[in-house]
Design the sequence.
């Protein structure tokens, strides 16, 4: 069934807003996935703060043409049945969500993506992005590194104090 012109304009407006605010957009072929599998993907994406969109590639091109940074972006890879994973919070999340899902679902194939600077990302770049730690994981690693000297000092003092206390107890008895 054909989509009315008003509905297309509404879809393009929604896509334009999503892409304008996106940190990263990743696209993948999904042909062969069942509706239940797609719903599972959408659920996992929602939990990671990622939106999954299944729209015609032509509408994505129109939306990208309305955004300054995407006007000159290469969109030749947008062919076939594609789904788009978009995040306006985390640069790594869309690639991570799709790559994780693709591990258990062979029908999902990562193809590429777009950065918020308008650069096209190849399949290899998207897979490399998926292998990176997420923003929250990086923050946790930095905090752990910052707390490491304090934790080590406290452990050393606690170990030293218990040794002193044990020695005093042995001396007094």
Sequence:
């Amino acid at each position: 069934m054909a989509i009315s012109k008003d509905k297309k304009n509404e879809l393009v407006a929604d896509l334009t807003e999503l892409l304008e605010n996106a940190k990263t957009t990743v696209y993948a072929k999904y042909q062969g996935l069942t509706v239940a599998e797609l719903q599972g993907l959408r659920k996992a994406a929602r939990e990671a703060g990622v939106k999954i969109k299944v729209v015609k590639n032509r509408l994505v091109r129109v939306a990208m043409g309305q955004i300054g940074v995407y006007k000159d972006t290469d969109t030749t890879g947008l062919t076939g049945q594609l789904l788009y994973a978009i995040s306006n919070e985390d640069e790594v999340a869309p690639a991570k969500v799709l790559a994780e899902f693709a591990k258990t679902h062979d029908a999902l194939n990562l193809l590429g993506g777009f950065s918020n600077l308008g650069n096209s990302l190849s399949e290899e770049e998207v897979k490399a992005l998926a292998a990176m730690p997420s923003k929250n994981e990086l923050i946790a690693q930095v905090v752990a590194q910052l707390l490491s000297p304090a934790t080590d000092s406290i452990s050393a003092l606690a170990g030293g104090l218990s040794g002193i206390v044990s020695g005093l107890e042995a001396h007094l008895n």
The helical segments are 5-21, 35-47, 57-65, 93-104, 123-131, 135-172. The chain is about 55% helix and 15% strand. The longest helix spans residues 135-172.
